[in-house]
Specification:
Pfam families: Glutaredoxin (PF00462). Homodimer. Interacts with ISCU. Interacts with BOLA1. The protein has seven helices and four strands. By secondary structure, the chain is of the alpha+beta class. The chain is globular and about 45 Å long.
Length: 149
């Protein structure tokens, strides 16, 4: 689902409460932004906020996350390019209380960044987490192929 919402729809979702509203300035905006981000991270089983796109990552850490997902055969995921929207870039950091990009969410839960995903890949936890989502890791098929030789 790489960018399944498209840029215009994602931008519309992330207006950060700029519309009419009462109350204290900024309070409704922050709440609205968090609610919109909450909807984004829960919309798909796998969601990644990265610099660039899965087809053209713009930093090494984002590229590493994309490559790890590819190794596991995960192709159907929502990807949001934070370089397209400075408010999204800061908003997702505030939402997760995590200072860096990329950020990975599985089933609406924040997993971490590149370092955490790499560690999960290396120790086998990512295979198990994907299984909980109903996603069979392609690495299981590779291992089975190697064992049968």
């Amino acid at each position: 689902m790489s960018g399944s919402l498209g840029r215009a729809a994602a931008a519309a979702l992330l207006r950060w409460g700029r519309g009419a509203g009462g109350g204290l300035p900024g309070v409704r905006a922050a709440s609205s932004g968090a609610e919109q981000l909450d909807a984004l991270v829960k919309k798909d089983k796998v969601v990644v906020f990265l610099k660039g796109t899965p087809e053209q990552p713009q930093c090494g850490f984002s590229n590493a996350v994309v490559q790890i997902l590819r190794l596991h055969g995960v192709r159907d995921y929502a990807a949001y390019n934070v370089l397209d929207d400075p408010e999204l870039r800061q908003g997702i950091k505030d939402y997760s209380n995590w200072p860096t990009i990329p950020q990975v969410y599985l089933n609406g839960e924040f997993v971490g960044g590149c370092d955490i995903l790499l560690q999960m890949h290396q120790n086998g936890d990512l295979v198990e987490e994907l299984k909980k989502l109903g996603i069979r890791s392609a690495l299981l098929d590779e291992k089975k192929d190697q064992d049968s030789k």
